[in-house]
Amino acid sequence: MANKAIAELMNAPLPELVERLGTSIADAQFALDKNSVAIAQTLADAEQGLDLGDGYGPRSLLELGFTPTFYQITEATVEARVAFTLNESESFSIGASVGVNVLFFAASVNASYSAKYSFEASGSSQIRAKFVSIPPPAIFSELLRSTIRGNAES
């Protein structure tokens, strides 16, 4: 029974787990980037901006200095813990009785054997990821500054 449990543990799809974690991190990073770009587009929309009443008309939130936050997943950890317990107990007993009567002899023998097995398996897993705020891409910041300068000059 213990050999079967060890074989199952050895067949665990660890490479597949690592591959899925990597793919999930890449997908999550892409979703974070798309979200930051969508926020930038919303902040750039002058119709959703503010009219400060200074004669320039409505200004986008980007023109007013608001920028989207960009995030990066810098670290990811997978932990898996597995515990196995195997108990085996055996018992063997013999009982006998002998009886003698005139011209009669009797004997009986009782034998019993029992084996008990118990197997327990437990496991736990944990996934941790660390997200950090990073500056916007340099090209984005440069285009933003040139756009703001162009809007201020017109």
Task: For the structure shown, list the relevant keywords.
alpha+beta, two-stranded antiparallel ribbon, two-stranded antiparallel sheet, 154 residues
> What does the largest sheet look like?
2 strands, antiparallel
Gyration radius (Cα, Å) is 37 Å
Which class do the helix and strand fractions yield?
alpha+beta
Q: Note the overall shape.
A: rod-shaped
Tell how many strands the DSSP assignment holds.
4
Poorly predicted parts: none
**What's the number of domains?**
1
Our measurement of the CA-to-CA distance between the termini, rounded to an integer number of angstroms, reads: 81 Å
Query: What would you call the quaternary organization?
Result: single chain
Strand arrangement in the largest pleated sheet:
1-2
- What's the average pLDDT? 77
Question: What is the N-to-C succession of helices and strands?
Answer: HHEEEEH
Helix amount: 25-40%
- What is the number of helices? 3
Strand content: 35-45%
